[in-house]
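Thread: Newbie trying to understand structure tokens

Hi all, I'm a second-year student working on a class project, and my supervisor (Dr. K.) asked me to get a predicted structure for one chain before our next meeting. I've only ever worked with sequences, so writing a 3D structure as a token string is new to me. If someone could post the tokens and maybe explain what I'm looking at, I'd be very grateful. Here's the chain:
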Amino acid sequence: MTSGRTHETARSWRAAAWTRTAISTAATSRCTARAPLQPQGLERAKVAAARSYEVRANWKLVWENNRECWHCTVNHPQYVRANYDNAPIDDPALKREIEAQVRARSAHVEPDGLAIDHQAAGLVRFPSPGCWWSINRTPLVSGWVSESMDGRPVAPLMGAYRTRDVGTLRMRTMPNFWNHSSGDHSVSTRLAPAGPQKTLVQVQWLVHEDAVEGKDYTLDALLPFWQLTSEQDWDLCARNQAGVSSSAFTPGPYSTKREYNVIRYTEWYLREIALELTRLET
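---
Reply by user tm_fold:
Sure, no problem. This is what the structure looks like when written as tokens:
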């Protein structure tokens, strides 16, 4: 009886942490997010394709994977060709390259009121206490104008964009959503816990509302970059779940140099649980 009640209580705590912060500040955040989101035209966009997955891992492991850097070089060759996320953060030559890219991309986007606001290697630092959402724009590597397999456009420009070289607009909201948007398409990922070791994931590809499949875009060109990256991640998550479920597993420290966002995620989750425990006990 006691173990059953404990399980139900724990499930209630998890559900509360899942919704508490997002509900409390949704209206304010919607107003703040409107300006950086508006040029993408997502409110009018057409869903060109969707893929659903059942990932054999706890949802927290899926989020940790999303916030992690060091697995990318080996597991996401197509992703690291296009992005600076996993680049050495203390390489002076790379720093100069990124600075040059920021200057060049800014010259393209500033006339339209856009800004390259993440100007360094590595991921934006997120989440943090009291911060459950984040939006930024970051440059792609030189020669890439879209997160596609070859960096070339795969669809008509979305929203209010007038040039293709706008980098990527990135969004993330705790605890279950992230999005990467190139100038010509947008890819959203949503998580739903379905058990202690199962997460349901839906990935959607969005394009301009008037784009016609077969004429303006093809799924063969639109899907592979993020379909491949996503499925590589789901395999990693399943293997991580098997590892942490093993009786031989011993937790170790995260790298403070590169995995600062995994640390931040863990701290965010523990803080949300602690706040809800305090509320339930008073």
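A couple of things are worth pointing out once you decode it. Strands lie at 46-55, 133-138, 168-173, 177-181, 186-195, 198-207. Residues 2-246+256-281 form a domain with the Naphthalene 1,2-dioxygenase Alpha Subunit; Chain A, domain 1 fold (CATH 3.90.380.10). Feel free to ask follow-ups in this thread.
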